[in-house]
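Help needed: design a sequence for this.
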């Protein structure tokens, strides 16, 4: 399918690896020029060079912490006018409800709620002026079914979801859509680390730990990053203009819910 977005320009955050990289690659395959951001310059440059070589699209890289004021200003200056925004950030650490103080919540909000909102506020007005735009926020399956030990993430991502619910409907008349992608477990370095930790805790092998988690997923496997990226690219396409303010689960059926 021709997504109809060749020649568009996208900013993809946290895109040196994992699901962010998968989204960047899928957009590049569709002919979209990229501005890629991540904190680590070496991994970012390697990912960008691979995309240039494989897909032949222009790629600008900005190694900066987009959750900081200075880093965000650097990213926005490099991005300029973009047609597509993909927000993404690693989640805050796990813990118990008794562990977290105000400072912990502020840091979580900065990373997983306030930074995406700041990027939306900075870039969507230009999309409105041009009469077309796409925003995709990578959040979490925990928005649908909160995970007890991820209370910081639950809180911050739920806040972003509420913001998007209203904002998406305000900008939709101008040809701009905002939607959220809610990943479950995917085969990334993060899932490998989680499996390794579970293996240590239980005295089993990482393969056994992975098999245990896969057994809890109706699809009986982890998601593939490339299928996540393809879904993101579709939401950014010319064919997705009637999808507004939605929260789309990619979890293999793990969250047992009707709606």
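Sure. Designed sequence:
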């Amino acid at each position: 399918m021709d997504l109809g977005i060749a020649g568009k320009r996208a900013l993809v955050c946290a895109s040196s690896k994992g699901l962010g990289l998968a989204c960047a690659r899928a957009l590049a395959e569709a002919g979209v020029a990229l501005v890629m951001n991540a904190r680590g310059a070496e991994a970012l440059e390697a990912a960008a060079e691979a995309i240039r070589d494989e897909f032949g699209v222009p790629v600008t890289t900005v190694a900066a912490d987009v959750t900081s004021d200075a880093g965000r200003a650097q990213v926005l200056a490099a991005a300029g006018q973009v047609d597509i925004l993909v927000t993404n950030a690693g989640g805050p650490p796990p813990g118990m409800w008794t562990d977290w103080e105000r400072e912990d919540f502020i840091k979580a909000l900065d990373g997983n709620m306030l930074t995406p909102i700041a990027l939306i506020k900075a870039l969507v007005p230009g999309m409105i002026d041009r009469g077309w735009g796409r925003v995709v926020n990578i959040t979490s399956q925990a928005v649908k079914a909160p995970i007890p030990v991820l209370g910081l993430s639950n809180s911050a991502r739920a806040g972003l979801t509420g913001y998007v619910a209203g904002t998406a409907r305000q900008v939709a008349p101008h040809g701009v859509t905002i939607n959220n992608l809610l990943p479950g477990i995917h085969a990334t370095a993060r899932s490998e680390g989680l499996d390794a930790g579970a293996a240590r805790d239980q005295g089993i092998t990482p393969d056994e730990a992975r098999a245990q988690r896969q057994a809890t997923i109706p699809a009986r496997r982890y998601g593939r990053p490339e299928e996540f990226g393809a879904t993101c690219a579709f939401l950014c396409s010319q064919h997705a203009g009637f999808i507004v303010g939605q929260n789309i689960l990619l979890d293999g059926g793990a969250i047992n819910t009707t709606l």
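The beta strands are 9-12, 33-38, 59-63, 84-87, 133-138, 176-183, 247-250.
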